[in-house]
Design a protein that fits this description.
CATH superfamily of the largest domain: Periplasmic binding protein-like II
Number of strands: 13
Number of helices: 10
Helix content: 40-55%
Radius of gyration: 29 Å
CATH architecture of the largest domain: 3-Layer(aba) Sandwich
Shape: elongated
C-alpha cells in the first residue's frame, strides 16, 4: 500500500469518476485506475461498485475513507518536517515586539509566515521595547523588533529605519490652542508615556513632565491622548489616521527629541523563518518612510 494509491482513491472519490479525477489532477486515467486497482488488490477488498459508467463507494470504501485522509495528511506532514529540517527551517521561533507598527501589518505578516512555514511554532510576546534586550540576553526570545533609542542598546542591535515621531494632543486639549509649544508648556500638563519593568521596578519614560500617565503600549498612549488625558510623543504610523480624522492634533514646536529608529535585536543565527520576517518588516518600513 502506497500513499500514491491512497491519494488516487481519494481523488476518484472526490470527483466521482476516474475521468473527472484525471481531468482535475492532470493525471492519466489509466494511472489512476491502476493505482486504485493495486490498492484494492493489496487490501483484498473492493472499494468501488462499478456498473457501466457509474461509480459508487462500497460500504467498506466509505468506512475507510476518513482514515485515508488522515494517512495522506500524516505523510504530507512527515515530508514537510523532513524538508524543513534539511533546509534549516526553525521548528520554533519566539518573537518579542512592541506595537509601534500597525497591528494590521503584524496580523498579515504572521499569516504569511504560518502559510509559508506551517510546521514552525511561532510565539509572539508584545512588550515595551525597553525590555527587549534582557529578553534576548536571557534567550527568552530569538528575535525582537521595536522602536529603540540609542541608549543602552547591545552591539548586535541592527538599525532598520528611522521613525518619525509626532507630538500630539486632542483638539480640545489646552496645548492644541497654543501657536507654539515649548518645554515649559509641556511640563504643565499630563504626559502619556511608556512604562516598563526594570529590576522589579516600574520605570516611566516621561520627558518633560513630572505629572504623567504611563502605560505599556503605544496604542494605549494614543487612545489616552485621543480622550484628552494628556499629550504624547508617538510614532507617526500610529497616529496618521487619527490626525486625518481630526481626533488628534499635531502640536507645533521646535523641540529636538531623541532620534528614534526601528531596530531588530538578535544574536543567534537567523534561520529561514526569522529571515523572512526580517525582510517583511524591512520592506514595510521602506514603503512607509
Amino acid at each position: 500500500m502506497r500513499i500514491e494509491q491512497i491519494q488516487a482513491f481519494i481523488d476518484v472519490t472526490e470527483h466521482g469518476s476516474f475521468a473527472a479525477a484525471a481531468r482535475q489532477t492532470l493525471t492519466k486515467r489509466s494511472t489512476l485506475s491502476a493505482a486504485v486497482s493495486a490498492l484494492e488488490d493489496h487490501l483484498g477488498v473492493a472499494l468501488f461498485e462499478r456498473s457501466g459508467n457509474s461509480l459508487a463507494l462500497t460500504p467498506l470504501g466509505e468506512s475507510i475513507l476518513p482514515d485515508c485522509y488522515r494517512l495522506v495528511t500524516s505523510a504530507t506532514r512527515i515530508d514537510k518536517y523532513c524538508q524543513q529540517h534539511t533546509l534549516g527551517v526553525e521548528s520554533q521561533l519566539c518573537i518579542a515586539r512592541d506595537d509601534a507598527l500597525p497591528e494590521s501589518f503584524w496580523q498579515g505578516v504572521m499569516h504569511e509566515i504560518k502559510t509559508r512555514f506551517p510546521l514552525t511554532a511561532v510565539s509572539v510576546y508584545l512588550a515595551p521595547p525597553q525590555t527587549h534586550p534582557a529578553l534576548i540576553a536571557r534567550q527568552t526570545v530569538d528575535i525582537a523588533f521595536g522602536l529603540y533609542t540609542d541608549q543602552a542598546l547591545p552591539h548586535y542591535a541592527k538599525r532598520l529605519a528611522p521613525v518619525d515621531m509626532r507630538l500630539v494632543a486632542a483638539p480640545h486639549h489646552p496645548l492644541s490652542r497654543l501657536p507654539s509649544v515649548r518645554r515649559d508648556d509641556l511640563a504643565q500638563y499630563t504626559q502619556v508615556c511608556l512604562s516598563h519593568l526594570q529590576d522589579d521596578r516600574l520605570v516611566s519614560e516621561a520627558l518633560f513632565s513630572a505629572n504623567y500617565l504611563s502605560v505599556t503600549m503605544f496604542e494605549l498612549m494614543r487612545d489616552a491622548a485621543i480622550q484628552g488625558t494628556g499629550w504624547a510623543l508617538l510614532p507617526s504610523l500610529l497616529v496618521s489616521d487619527a490626525l486625518k480624522a481630526g481626533t488628534l492634533c499635531r502640536l507645533p514646536h521646535e523641540l529636538a527629541f531623541e532620534s528614534h529608529h526601528y531596530r531588530t535585536l538578535t544574536h543567534a543565527h537567523q534561520g529561514p523563518v526569522a529571515t523572512q520576517l526580517l525582510q517583511r518588516v524591512s520592506h514595510f518600513l521602506a514603503r512607509t518612510n
